[in-house]
Amino acid sequence: MKKFIPFLLLLLCVGSAYAQTHLEQYINTGLSNNETIRQQQFLLDKSLWALKEAKSLFLPNVEFNGNYTLAGGGRTVDIPVGDLMNPVYKTLNQLTGTNNFPQIQNQSVLLNPNNFYDVKLHTTFPVINAEIAYNKKIKSQQYDLQKIEIDIYKRELVKEIKIAYYNYLQATAAIGIYENALALVKENERINTSLFNNEKVNRTAVVRSNNEVTKITAQLNTAMINRDNARDFFNFLINQPLTTPILIDSITNIPDPHVADDTAVNKREELLKLNTAAAINKNLIGLANSYKIPKLNSFLDLGSQAFDFKVNDKSPYYFFGISLGWDIFSGGRNKFKVKQVEADTKVIASQTSNTEQQLRLQVSTAANSFNTALINYNAAVSQVASSEKYYKDELLLYKEGISLYIELLDAQNQLVSAQLQANISLYDTLIKQAEIERANASFTIQ
């Protein structure tokens, strides 16, 4: 017992540099292997491409267009060329005594172009368009919002990994306690058997000591199952095979009591998320009001057109223009859109206030729980020392035949219970520390 208790107290403390190294490695593994984070990263990539798409709207858009038409029938334009020119040609023939000026027929030209091609490069460029500018701002903020979503999940995952790791260490330490208790009850069984053989105790003491061996053995088996379950859940969180062995950190220090002093919530991603949503909503108001700003666009066509697929010095052409559009009247639809977005702004402001209050309550509760856990741990350590002394005294008295076995058994149960409580209390302080780090966002996420 003299060797075990100091070892237990050493094991039940937190945080050497070597210990943190293993835990930090597991946290990094969990953050890099988690499938949900990968899915969130895919959504972040999607938001990035959407942002690049929004930026591309500021650049010219060039299209290649080509068409060829055949036509027959339909509307025509009648040109009385013969009626106009034939009298003149007849007079000229008479004056010259020749037939150099033949008679011509009136012409009928189809309105639809027949055997006609038109190929061109059509370029458009937005000169003034407020919708494009606001759309770019919104896409950029949506990208930031997705990054915040990932950070929120990462921070929660870090907390869960830490708690699962401490639960595993706690279960492992509990096995050591039960193994030591089993050694004690087996020693008591040996002593009782020896005393019974020497007719110093009755069979009841032997039977009771046998029962204690059976009880502690069952508790040890349960502790092993709990450890295996804690191991499987921890490996699940970091996306490793469930039965992968876990490296146990050596523990040398208890949590710093001052970690509960930081009760600020301004670093919480949840508030940053709401602030970003409010900024997006502000730009949505600007987008809804963009109807007040006229839209000015330009276009340029460079191409070639002619009949019968001819290409000559007359077929190339260019066509340039500017278009101006201004929404004058739309039955109030644009104003109604603005009112809807303004209502959303009030909702976000209310959510921000409520969320901030909830986060303050969370960090306050976590700090109080941490302080309580420290008090409980210190009391549990003191109880272990007292229980050890009480057990040694009772064991000595029992060997001398002064004390009853039931008193020794009570001292033994008190010692085991105190050791288990010290184990639980210590790791409870670590768990509460992880909850504080989650509540005040003090853990640095890589």
Main structural class: alpha+beta
Shape: rod-shaped
Mean pLDDT: 88
**CATH homology superfamily of the largest domain:** Outer membrane efflux proteins (OEP)
Low-confidence stretches: 1-19
Strand neighbour order, sheet with most strands: 1-4-5-6
CATH topology grouping of the largest domain: Outer membrane efflux proteins (OEP)
Main sheet overview: 4 strands, antiparallel
Q: In CATH terms, what is the architecture of the largest domain?
A: Up-down Bundle
Count every helix, treating DSSP H or I runs of 4 or more residues as helices.
9
The helicity comes to: 55-70%
- Residue fraction in strands: 5-15%
Distance between the termini: 43 Å
Task: Explain this structure.
The protein has helices spanning 4-11, 17-33, 35-56, 81-96, 130-197, 203-237, 269-289, 333-399, 405-440; strands at residues 61-69, 76-79, 107-110, 116-128, 295-307, 316-325. The chain is an alpha+beta fold and 446 residues long. The chain has 2 domains: 4-70 and 120-440, Outer membrane efflux proteins (OEP) (Up-down Bundle); 76-112, no CATH class. The longest helix is centred in the middle third of the chain and has 68 residues, at 130-197. Residues 1-19 form the signal peptide. One of its GO terms (cellular component) is cell outer membrane.
